Amino acid sequence: MSSSPSYQKLRARFREAALLRSTEGVLGWDQETGLPPKAVGWRAEQMSHLSGLVHRLTTGREIGEWLGECEVAGFAGESTEGVNVRGWRREYDRATKLPAALVEEFSLTTSAGMHAWAEARKVSDFSAFRPVLEKLVRLCQEKADHYGWTTCRYDALMDIYEPGARSADIGALFSELGPEVAGLIGPAMEKAAAQPENLLAGHYPVAAQQAFNREVAAAVGFDFEAGRIDTTTHPFCTGLGPGDTRLTTRYDESDLFGSLYGVLHEAGHGLYDQGLRAEEWGLPAGDAVSLGIHESQSRLWENHIGGSDAFWEHWYPRACHHFPGLTKFTPSQIAAAARRVSPSFIRVEADEVTYDQHIILRFELERGLINGDLAVKDVPEAWNARFKELLGLTVPDDARGCLQDIHWSMGSLGYFSTYTLGNLNASQLMKAVRAAHPGLDGELASGKYSTLLGWLRKNVQELGQTLDPPELMRRATGETTNAKHHLEYLRGKFL
Ligand code: ZN
Fold first, then answer.
1. Cα 455 from Cα 475, distance rounded (Å)
2. In this predicted model, what pLDDT tens digit does every residue of 306-336 receive, in sequence order?
């Protein structure tokens, strides 16, 4: 199969696209980290030129012919060739199924959408965003119809981010999770209230935070010979090629935790990136499988490792070295301060217990909008009512309610659920690796993370897109994604 001329042509073509995409990625990283303001226009032209090139390279009629030849020849589903051909087919179909006029209208509407959303949010008035959101929802419905779906239109949009995800399954999962989490919030808050708020208020110099973050990131296995950490307003991780993974974080000198947990989160994404097969980098066999699996890696290192008592027991001397004021506290006081539970209106500020409630709300509303069960004009009312049920709070205004996220204004409907899938997957993976390595907790307590990382490399990262996410989880943990293990983890940690 690998000697088939059409496979070789496809591989060469998509490798060229991967080179161009990663070049665009370098420009995007540079734009976020160090671009002079006057260079913005030229940078936008550079990047749009590159994406135009990639689009032409990956949508030509010949690609369809080569794919057809490979598919007729047949290939083993889990071979590198099989995985690549299947992934390219998916990408090719997605890129060629939409009529050019729809793509153009979508792009124009999202530009208008982001502007209208920003203005509407400033004055906290949903009605100013409503007309463009109505249009965006209609265009997303059209997109879904072009991609194709069987039982639920929303599935076609979720599939972009989470291959194989079905809203019936996710909906069932979330209906189990939501009420259980709602029941946890009160007791977890009571427990948090036993400790004084702002216990760790103090001054944490940026240079000391950077030094500590770097020690921790290196210890969990992030390879600084193949990556780096920079500073941006919005933290992210971007893989720019084999041997080049960039993380960013932000610093607040009054907060010990923000940059550290930001780095652990992004380093989790970065470890996935560094664990992909280098020789297939940028091709389906060497690319991440889904957002829900990606997020499982970041949540695992951020919450299960960084948020544990064992973490602070081990890192206490180094933390005190960098921040001498911490000697006033015990490791378990620091760990408890890091996991305070307090329901709030804003998703991105939510704690670990309440976070998924924010996601469940968005998933339900998006599904309703795309399936036609919810009218855009009814969004604020539906949002506020469901928010009250899930989090027990009365939303005071649209800015702190349905206008808080940028996603809908960009036409990005379909991926909120992957954040919660990430949380569920992380708990489930931790359960499985503990079962496979009974001594794991002892190792983690002494700051040894290589067994855990090695297991994740073998069972998740090195697979690329070999298995779709449900099958990946089934083989790694014995079950497809479910809520049981995450609920057990939350109860253990917060009650
Ligand atoms: Zn993430």
1. 13
2. 999 999 999 999 999 999 999 999 999 999 9
pLDDT digits (tens, 9 = 90+) for 252-304: 999 999 999 999 999 999 999 999 999 999 999 999 999 999 999 999 999 99
Q: How many other β-carbons are positioned within 10 Å of the β-carbon of residue 324?
A: 10
Q: What is the rounded CA–CA span in Å between residue 195 and residue 311?
A: 19
Residue 143 structure tokens: 């997109």
Candidate list 266, 313, 352, 366, residue with the active-site label: 266
480 Cα to the center of ligand 1, angstroms: 21
Distance 291 CA to ligand 1 centre (A): 8
78 annotated active-site: no
- How many angstroms does the Cα of residue 395 sit away from the middle of ligand 1? 26
Give CA–CA dist 120/135, Å, rounded. Answer: 16
Walk me through the domains of the chain, giving residue ranges and CATH numbers. Answer: 5-148 (1.20.58), 167-494 (1.10.1370.30)
Distance 421 CA to ligand 1 centre (A): 12
237 phi/psi in degrees, rounded to 5? -130, 135
Q: Which residues have CB under 8 Å from 483's CB, separation 6+?
A: 173, 176, 177, 180, 424
Cα 476 to middle of ligand 1, angstroms: 21
Instruction: Indicate yes or no: pTM above 0.90.
Output: yes
Task: Tell me the Cα Rg of the chain.
Answer: 23
